[in-house]
Fold each of these.
Amino acid sequence: MFTVFRGGQSGAWRVTRLAPVKGASLARTPALSSVYSASIALPILPSLTSWRLAGVASHVRYTERAEKNQLIEAQAPLGRPDATCAALIPIKKSAAWWELTQEERRQIFEDRSNHIAGSLKYLPAIARQLYHCRDLGEPFDFLTWFEFVPAHADAFEELVAMLRATEEWNYVEREVDIRVERERLDAG
Ligand code: HEM
């Protein structure tokens, strides 16, 4: 199953900011929607769609057992009614990253950049889902998605700034930062 994000004229999320962090941007668009689909090539109305990005929620590659347990213990689900702020951050890493071995990448990702150890304290405030798309012929390698309440917007800025200053990010060759908001989902 694929998750397809569509930037377009309408959608559940209103785009509040869309800016390139590194490399080429994506076209500006007023709204974002996402669908869970059996097809990577969803039929779209070209006139209403600026771009579409697809990915797969896959198994973990670098996370070790103790870390996985800590993540499961701390994490919050997507779709919390009051998490009205979200970020879609598509990322492509360089050929140099992909030429490394799994073990070398893990050393950079965690031993030297503390991606997991440094980010854990932002759970459960920030709910997250990583989608892989490197092998799907997509323009990015990863689609990263985060949801949080407005009161945690500053914490999220701190988190992305912390990660962007790591050795891991030397291997990021394209990154676009898309921030979106929606109305509160009321239970009743
Ligand atoms: C909310 C706190 C965060 C936590 C707890 C977290 C945790 C993780 C974990 C556990 C993985 C490894 C998955 C695996 O083993 O394959 C991962 C991968 C990744 N994360 Fe985060 N993350 C956080 C925030 C972020 C942010 C804010 C970004 C982007 C700005 C980001 C970008 C990525 C990317 C691109 C990968 C894939 C790395 C690769 O496979 O080369 N993460 N994250």
Amino acid sequence: MNKLNPLKFGIIGCSRIARKSVIPAILKSEFAELEIIGSRTIEKSEKFSSEFNCRKNGTYDDVIFDDSINAVYISTPIGTHAELAMKAASAGKHVYCEKSSTDSFTSAKEMVECSKNNNVRIMEGFMFRFHPQHQKVQELINNKKIGNIDSFNGSFGFPSFPEGDIRYNKELGGGFLNDSGCYPICASRMIFDEEPLSVFYHKYNHPKMDVDVKGTSILIYKNNKTANITYANGNYYQAKYDVWGSDGIISLDRAYSVPSDFITKINLQYNIENSWNGRKNKIIEIPATDHFLKMIDTFCMEIAGKIKSPFNFEEELLNQAKVMEAHRRSSDTGKLIHLEELN
Ligand SMILES: NC(=O)c1ccc[n+]([C@@H]2O[C@H](COP(=O)([O-])OP(=O)(O)OC[C@H]3O[C@@H](n4cnc5c(N)ncnc54)[C@H](OP(=O)(O)O)[C@@H]3O)[C@@H](O)[C@H]2O)c1
């Protein structure tokens, strides 16, 4: 494919998600180009580069200081994102940083400030937001198909990772609030299209490793709307949410991590008359979509000034990081945390 003025990407970290989803999407995008791949070990960067026919490889610094790239993709452990993102931004590179962007609200603010000071953009990689199924949900809500929306219920969890995985390492920003709880939290903010006022969060730590593996939280939004969030590592796979309204309920079974060839289904339940027999179910199929590709296209086109992204990258990153911080504070103190307490 001949690409016209693509954003040239350097990859920081030869991760599983880079290999499986993000590098293939960069290669597919007509607005992005793969330029260089960096790793802590030269052998790994060489292997990845040959796998993807990438001309250049090297260390993380070789990527960050490569004059021919415009953007970096960071998919290293969460606890390492902030330093790498700020180094790249200071070198004048736009940053696409994997979720969770970082493990503290303070470092999130530093990341955004550093990007602004260097006139580059920074985006947290919540690709699920770019899947058209959520736009359809939003359309059903806006058209009052389920009346006034009142609560959101979201859960995301899966079987355990092998021992030694980055997610079980506290120093690397591990734990499953950062890894998977962050998705339904982000989805509730997207569905209500506002920020929660307060958060109460309970977590359960792994008996041996000092990281959270399960947790549940209540987010209270304006007018007593609530979001109930559950995440669990070591459980049967779940990636769902329901939006419950006065006249119906919308359910998504595959809300967060969706393979690009997977046809998703939205289940809409509503009443056509006010009785149990008057309940109707409608299944709405959404065509298979590569949400990584959609996100990369949006990132590149927004930077090129060709479109306006539906999500303001920096504001979104900060708002999400603030809600995540409220979770940490709530579990540290055992109290309900009001978002206005955090600044
Ligand atoms: N958006 C999504 O769907 C999605 C899905 C999965 C994961 N993620 C996110 O992507 C990131 C990576 O997750 P992953 O599961 O793909 O991880 P992974 O396979 O374990 O890869 C992480 C990479 O980070 C680099 N790294 C740097 N410092 C490291 C250290 N001290 N220990 C281990 N690795 C280190 C390594 O690359 P080098 O050896 O090449 O330096 C390693 O390959 C995380 O932020 C995660 O939350 C996103």
Amino acid sequence: MARTHEGQVVVVTGAGKGIGRAVAERFAKAGANVGVNDIDANRVDEVVNGLITSGYAALGIPGDVSDSSQVRTMFDDVVKDFGTVDVLVNNAGLVSPMLHFFEADEAWWRRIIDVNLTGHFLCSHRAARIMAAAGKGVIINMSSGGATRAHRAFTAYDASKGGIEALTRAMALDLGPYGIRVCALMPGSIDTEGMSEAARNLRGENIPLGRPGDPDDMAGPALFLASDDACYITGDVIKVDGGMLSQQRSATVDIMPPSDFPSLDQVLGED
Ligand SMILES: NC(=O)c1ccc[n+]([C@@H]2O[C@H](COP(=O)([O-])OP(=O)(O)OC[C@H]3O[C@@H](n4cnc5c(N)ncnc54)[C@H](O)[C@@H]3O)[C@@H](O)[C@H]2O)c1
């Protein structure tokens, strides 16, 4: 693959699995030096060892993004090894446990807000100082459709993601004068656990592009936002969801479900 991000120093949080891992691996293959963070140190070792064995540049920086002293150590280690931080991908996030509002308690609320929202703040706060010294940098936050349209039993998660979109805009204003762009990606339904074929098909029925996303579908947009091709984009949220958030009704209850669409033979026969 083309080494489009040669020498860029990129930190990806929550990169031990799922979307974060796919994004970290794609940056490394594009020539970046990647700081791989996760709260699970074993997963960090697995990802870093895999990358180094394949000839790519990676450094393990395990830690909890909601703990400011661990975050400081993570960024100090990256600067010591790679010299700077050009790109931060704030990806670490807690989805579970799901709790109905009446089952929820303060500890649940605080942990999800701490990891998802405060974690974005703490990592950005460290990274932005390093970026400001260099006069350039890109911060990519990870939102969710839950910022705009709610999930059932996800009050803390959806509130954290709404906060992330507001944080993205606010940071873009404060950091723009220092040469730092701040954007967010909004993943749709991404299959990070390896769904069965039947589950993928069922999920795909309600997605205009007909399938759930794969973790690697998030990597191209992340690399684009980190590149100079995106040099005039800041404060924005880019949807990467196969069209899911653009639809008003789910396909199964729509007035004209996709099963009623004209066949390709009918379409081509009209010419
Ligand atoms: N998968 C989806 O469909 C989807 C949809 C919308 C948004 N997102 C967002 O994308 C991001 C990644 O999601 P995913 O599905 O790949 O999740 P995942 O659960 O597969 O991976 C998340 C990783 O983050 C790590 N992590 C959790 N808490 C951490 C902490 N305190 N510090 C550091 N690392 C921590 C976990 O150990 C895990 O390896 C999350 O922010 C999530 O909210 C995912």
Amino acid sequence: MTSTTTTPVTEDAERFLDHIERADADAAIDQALDLVREGWRVTDVVRDLLAPAQRTVGERWAAGRYTVAHEHLVSGVVDDVLGLLAVHAPRPGPEHTLALACAEGEWHTTPARMAALCLRDAGWRVQFLGGSLPADHLASTLAHLAPPAMAISCTLPLALPGVATLADAAHDQQIPVVVGGAAVAATRRHVRLGADGGVGTVEEAVDLLRTWLDQPVELQATARDVDADLERALLTSTRAHLLDHAYRRLEAELPQMAGYTERQRHHTRQDLDYILQFVDVALAVEDTSLLTSFVGWLADLLAARGVPPAVLERSLAVLRYVLPDEAPHARGLLQAGIEELRGRTG
Ligand code: B12
């Protein structure tokens, strides 16, 4: 996401956020519950009030307008509202049970809870298995619930490898898997991760699940790419060395780094590491847009914190320079990131 794609803040969402900014969480909760009393379905409250409010929080945080504490405050109220709305949603029977979990490494439970509530509103009895679920903890719960399908939520691209391990665990029990959330929406990333379906919205998931109930699903095998796997293994085993080398080269190329504080040095190292992690996941799902959209997002984030785009471009360039010849796809991804930045600055 970039700051150039601003969510249109609905009047309702703006009022909701105003209440919280004025430290009146009760007024925000009342506002949401009043909509239900006026006849809104819980799905409408999620789609038209809570989701735009949360997206706006993200944009304000990225722009440096909200602190993390502020974001936590709003998410806390949204979570309270989700709990209260559950009382106004239907109670589907056990034959429509769905297990829903966040991929390992994914702590954005609120989007998953929103999806859970909307799925319930659409007739699915959702068993929510929480944030960052390690795959080896899934088997006994799935055996116990025996759901006709499993749903996975993934917001953060870095958590996508966790989708693959959960999908494998569900497939071990012949359970088909649908994955949703911002990290997969409008992409085909689910295919490389071995999930049987990838969706952008709850409505799409409901349609897909209906077809799965009507006829048995042929489970997807994880589509492995040997070259990409070899590059990923190489990056993992040489990561510390690559980061050291890239950091030293960046210091040599950017004279202003001589005046950096310890904290700025730490952040610079962290950003180099973050870029390499995104390269790794982009290789895993074979999707260059994963890296280029991350670069755009990071450029906006750094700009809002006073870091010029040239620093990010140099960071990508030094990483590409230190990568060995045996990692051509990773180097290609970094080049695509550089071009993305150049395209943005003209
Ligand atoms: C709140 C929040 C947090 C909270 C999460 C609290 C919680 N309990 O969920 C905390 C503080 C933990 C957090 C942490 C981080 N966050 Co955060 N977070 C957000 C924020 C502001 C809101 C999330 C949210 O509730 N979204 C609301 C819903 C509406 O979003 P949605 O994804 O569209 O979900 C809908 C659909 O996708 C669908 N859906 C979702 N899952 C599923 C599953 C299925 C099966 C189906 C059918 C549908 C479905 O249903 C939802 C409702 O319609 C977002 C901003 C944003 N745009 O989302 C950033 C955001 C997601 N976070 C971000 C980042 C960077 C982070 C951190 C890395 C920050 C850091 N440096 O530590 C960490 C990562 C933690 C981790 N490992 O998971 C970035 C991600 C950018 C990127 N693409 O990489 C965002 C976009 C902020 C930003 N503007 O930059 N975050």
